[in-house]
Design goal:
The complex is a heterodimer of chains A (293) and B (270). Chain A has eleven helices and no strands. Chain A is mostly helical. The two termini of chain A are 25 Å apart. Chain B has 270 residues and is mainly alpha-helical. Chain B has three domains: 46-102, no CATH class; 103-189; 212-270, no CATH class. Chain B has helices at residues 2-39, 49-54, 57-64, 68-84, 88-101, 106-125, 133-157, 162-176, 179-190, 197-209, 213-226, 233-236, 238-251. Classes of the chains: A mainly alpha (293), B mainly alpha (270). The interface between A and B is large, with 62 and 57 residues.
């Protein structure tokens, strides 16, 4: 059996186990119910409604995705150790890094499925809203008394369709996915040295928040005019070097606002995420190799 | 025992080397991405202590966790509850904060300024609790100014879309009677290819209202010449433009040979 086949087998099992976990299913159902409630913004103008729905759906996808990533990964190693299945697997010709990669890929597959499901629900919400608002605009078009009113109704219809079917939303979903996969990898790295599930959950959550403040830490650290003592500078340097800048993925807001997002920036952000992901997974493997089991 | 210890340290050393090496590579990359974000005007103002004081702890936490859009939407909805309760100062403060959080949102600048300059100003003028007209007029003016300041900051943040230029042109015309400045803003709006047709007409109307008939005539002539086929009649309302041209030609006593031939344009059928 090749390493790839072994990794695939572990990933498949991890995915099936994750799909059976009650906690994760509850979080997912909660996320789907909340997403389906996005149509509650109906008292606002249609510009507001689409912005709110998109912000809300992408926010929920991001939040639920991150929670599921942390919870699922935090349980991986402790569950295997408690059930002693880890020792059974590692006594076979399976290397530690293969085991860890299999586990990560299994969780990543579960997260991809979850995010795809939430994206589908979000698309359905947007479609329903477009359908409802378009019906009103078509009614306005039918009743238009002069060419200008008719043109205004036609412009509204076009704006509604453009807001609901913005292809850039796929890029936003992609960015959410990349961010969630990166958080899962960070959780995995932390879980290789953690002694409890709670430790992994808390530390990963803190790293997640620190990741959004990394650019501020970096700016203060590298700016000699900033009033920070040597100890603070050392702390900020450690944060800047160790923690990925999650603010890089904040262009989700720009996509929702309909602002121009360059493909070049998107590619650079994806490449940056890919680099971070690779390094964090390599660090996880190195730490797991050295862990005393 | 020694093997286990050395193996353990080997793993930690490898992890430290990887992270340190990656840190050295990622820092310039992050700085370049940050500079590009600033150039493309991505993101809003940094979260300041004053900002944190104005919102709840939960919202501050969400803000720090990258949910800026969702927090801005939430605060916008809260601002609307202040609107329903007629708590204008709170509403103003919160709307300013929302604009600060997402300065690239046309919607927030536009709606905030509209609330200030139209709705609240109108309410201030008709405040039954204030018997003195002078005070009510002063309050109205103050809110209209607040609306203008918001729009001026809005166009600073979003100069690349027509919407706020048009809104500022509209405000200067309707609430300040500053038609020359209004014409300038409508001109900026009309320069965008996706600007509505009326933006182009507004430039001419405002120049006329500003008492600049020569400039207005020049503008209408240029607009007329720029569209030789007179397409999209229903939207451009060429018949009205033709009428403006004829009236200005009479007013400015343009010789017959130099007048624009507007005879071919007829009013669109309703």
């Amino acid at each position: 059996m090749s390493p790839l086949a072994r990794i695939a087998a572990i990933a498949r099992n991890t995915l099936l186990e994750a799909l059976r976990q009650r906690v994760l299913n509850v979080i997912l159902v909660f996320g789907l119910v909340v997403l389906a409630g996005a149509n509650l913004f109906s008292e606002f103008s249609f510009d507001d409604q689409f912005k709110f729905i998109k912000d809300y759906c992408l926010g929920i996808m991001s939040l639920i995705g991150v929670i599921m990533a942390i919870v699922a990964v935090a349980q991986l190693l402790p569950a295997e150790m408690e059930g002693r299945t880890l020792f059974t697997i590692l006594s076979k010709p399976v290397r530690r890094w293969e085991f860890l990669m299999g586990k990560y890929l299994g969780v990543a597959a579960m997260l991809l499925l979850t995010l795809a499901l939430m994206a589908a629900v979000s698309a359905a919400v947007l479609f329903a809203q477009e359908h409802s608002l378009s019906a009103d605009a078509r009614e306005g078009l039918a009743r238009a008394a002069d060419p200008q009113a008719a043109e205004a109704a036609r412009a509204s219809l076009a704006k509604i369709a453009a807001a609901a079917r913005d292809p850039w939303l796929l890029a936003a979903v992609g960015l959410v996915t990349v961010k969630v996969l990166l958080v899962a990898a960070i959780a995995l790295a932390i879980s290789t040295i953690a002694t409890s599930v709670m430790f992994t959950v808390v530390v990963t959550s803190l790293v997640y928040i620190a990741g959004h403040l990394e650019s501020t830490a970096r700016a203060v650290w590298l700016d000699p005019t900033q009033p920070a003592g040597p100890a603070a500078k050392v702390f900020l340097a450690v944060v800047s070097i160790l923690i990925p800048d999650l603010g890089v993925f904040n262009l989700i807001d720009e996509i929702v606002l309909g602002n121009t997002v360059t493909i070049a920036y998107l590619l650079k952000a994806s490449a940056y995420a890919g680099g971070c992901l690779t390094v964090v997974l390599l660090v996880s493997c190195a730490l797991f190799e050295s862990r005393e089991l | 025992m020694r093997t286990i210890v050395s193996q353990r340290w080997r793993g930690w050393a490898a992890a430290a080397l990887l992270l340190g090496g990656w840190g050295a590579i990622k820092l310039p990359v992050e700085r370049a991405l940050g500079a590009e974000q600033a150039r493309l005007r991505y993101g809003g103002a940094r979260v300041s202590p004053e900002m944190r004081d104005m919102i709840s702890q939960g919202a501050a936490m969400a803000l720090l966790s990258g949910f800026r859009g969702a927090v801005a939407d939430y605060l916008w909805i809260v601002a609307h509850t202040y609107w329903e309760r007629r708590e204008w100062f709170r509403m103003h403060r919160l709307m300013e904060l929302v604009c600060l959080l997402q300065p690239r949102s046309v919607l927030f600048w536009d709606m905030s300024s509209w609330h200030m300059a139209w709705n609240i100003a109108h309410d201030a003028l008709n405040d039954p609790g204030e018997p003195r007209l002078s005070k009510r007029l002063w309050a109205e003016r103050k809110w209209i100014e607040a609306g203008r300041r918001l729009l001026e900051r809005g166009v600073e943040n979003i100069p690349d879309k027509y919407d706020l230029w048009a809104r500022l042109g509209w405000l200067l015309d309707q609430k300040f009677g500053d038609h020359a400045a209004s014409a300038e803003n409508w001109r900026r709006a009309a320069a965008f290819p996706d600007a509505p047709a009326f933006a182009r007409r507004q430039v001419g109307y405002q120049l006329e209202k500003a008492g600049k008939p020569e400039e207005a005539y020049r503008y209408w002539r240029e607009l007329w010449a720029a569209h030789p086929d007179k397409g999209d009649t229903a939207l451009m309302l060429w018949d009205r433009i033709a009428e403006r041209i004829r009236q200005l030609e009479d007013q400015l006593k343009i010789p017959a040979g130099q007048r624009v031939d507007t005879s071919a344009v007829v009013a669109p059928k309703p």
